[in-house]
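S.,

Sequence below, as promised.
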Amino acid sequence: MQFRRVVAICAVAALLCLTSSALLADQTLHLFDGTTEAVELGPWGSGEIVLSDWQTFAEQQTLAVTTQGYHEGGRLDLKQPVDFTVFGADPIQTQLIIVAKAQVPLWPYGGYGAQGGGLMMPGRLPGGPGAAAPGVGMSVPPRMGPMGRGGPMMPGGPGISTAQVSEPPKPIDRIRVVLVTDKGQLSSGGLLLDPNLPFEGDWLRISAVLSDFARPEDLRGAILQRVVITGNHEGIAYIADLKIVQEDTPQVAQIEGPEIRTVPGGQPAQFTAKPQHEGVNATYQWDCDDLDGLGFDAYGEEISYQFPEAGYYMVTLRVADNNGQLQPRMDTIKVKVE
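The prediction came back faster than expected:
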């Protein structure tokens, strides 16, 4: 009997250890990766969200979100709501990662064009769906909608009159993601679609640390029920991948030493980055002359840099994930060169 009790106690202890390890290990919640097996799609406001065959990524379908502002777009309702405790417990260790791009509205014609030409997705503008502009792409059958309100129509379907358009529409350059839980919402704010940071082709990868979200203070026991995606202007945003990643050991971006320092001119200055946690592989990138923009001047945990002249400088350390999956972290110090 005593032996059985010992075995039972050991089994329970082992189970607790495994459970604890599972909670501490990096975890990923896939919200969309080419299929809607885990979610149901629905409109947000007067927007729309559908699976797209016109824009694919890695030979998989993407989500096409039609939006006219942050209050219109699409939603993904989780078929099985998820306990958000692990992700919300330490927001600085959790990131939202998106692979996305937006279509450029055609002007002065109706419809939307993929950046750089190619197939045109049917658009939904005031006056009805639009069509492709000559020389930009080929038209596709428009969605059902009201006819345009007069004026010459481009071939391929009803559109809007060129006389109705006084200035080109602003393209979507920011998207907003709202995570809806039973304890409140977590809003990313506008996430920049930076064309200078391509991921694959014209697709961009955006990552945002959860600690930067507007969010409830206490997310313990929160259940994630829905995700809302919108854009800042009229157009179509395409989503190829959407996931939440919790890092057990996040990257460390910290320049060792004081935040304000003085170095002698005419000779190299030394800078050292705080090392990473065990098992974290990262790249160290340094910008020592902020006057020329964020351009990297040196690489590595320890660097030596000679400033061109006396004055005041901002030295920035950027720590990037070697796998390119997570949001880079940054630290900055002020340097006076005498």
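The longest strand covers residues 235-246.

Coffee later?
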